Hints:
Rossmann fold; 14 helices
Amino acid sequence: MKKAKTPTSVIYVNFSQYDNTGRILDYLREQFDTVLQFSFDHLRLKHGRKTNLITLYTKGEKPYINTLYSLRVPPFLLFPSLPLVGVLMVIQTVRQSYLLRRHLSRPVFFTVNAYPALIGVLLKILGLANQVTYWVWDYYPVRGPDWTLRMIRYAYLVFDMIALRLADTLIFPNRRQMKLRQTLHGIRGSHRIIPLGGPKPTRYHQKVSHTFGFLGMLKSSQGLDLMLACFDKILTNNPNIVLEIVGSGPEEEKMRAKAARYAGHVKFYGFIEDQDAINRIVRRWFAGLAVYEPAAGNESYFGDPSKIKVYVSQGVPIITTNVTSYGAETKKHKLGKVIRYSEHALGEAIREVHKKQRQYRKSALQYAEKFYYRRLYRHLFN
Length: 382
């Protein structure tokens, strides 16, 4: 029997805030001769990138980059406009894949989201993709008081169910995600589990720092509200302390307004696309926040937080809650502090990690070795 040829080109579809999360775009460019990347700005964040992009990477040649149509609406129309945004995604992905098909040789379609996975199935039916690989990063519980959000999450659950059945290859970042899909949708068989990776661990001489930070999507379930609520007490204990926030999100303006009274002590960077630039910021911190709210509708319970991989790769201790599986890992490997979701617990953890930052740094760097993306992703497309 002939051995199947390794694909040499890939069509990669993701949303702009997550294009290179876990260094996945870096890996695709290293693994494939040709990468056709679609990057969609579905959240249309004020401090994010304000356009959709298509980029064709071909080894040895300068990337071809072009803008795609992007629907910009007032904030109150953000959710109602999502169906139209979805239709535009389908039209533009199919059209551009057809126009650029001569650059692609039996491409694999790759995504980490259910809706783009269905676009990949359509491309396969049309003969524009050879196979569909769906790396299942997220699950969104259909709960909460906001009925519009519940409707959107229910629609996503339907897309997810169909994508799981029609994709050629399923990969999960952890056992929680896989078992959940087996329970919800009855998927069968053995599927690969590959966690999100991180950059190569960076060892360097670090002086005692008074700066800590947060990396990721700005929304209340990520713990920044809790952080700002106890910031007065933190400043009382350490007047030199500075909080840096890297990222954007639907609640960014609200958080900027709350932090305005702490001018000089809270800095917002907004969305940064360059992962190396993010690393240069993060490595100066004495702690990285991953304080997930233990709420029933928090999707982080099933996720694989890439921010933690970035923190430890730069030797930055973690302050987290026992929501993701990395709560137990943080405690086991002495990477930082695992806390209850309370102002008092967070304030005490920041004070303790600040005092013991050198000790935690060493443990974080040792732990980071297992998440180097080149090592983790070797079997992603095998």
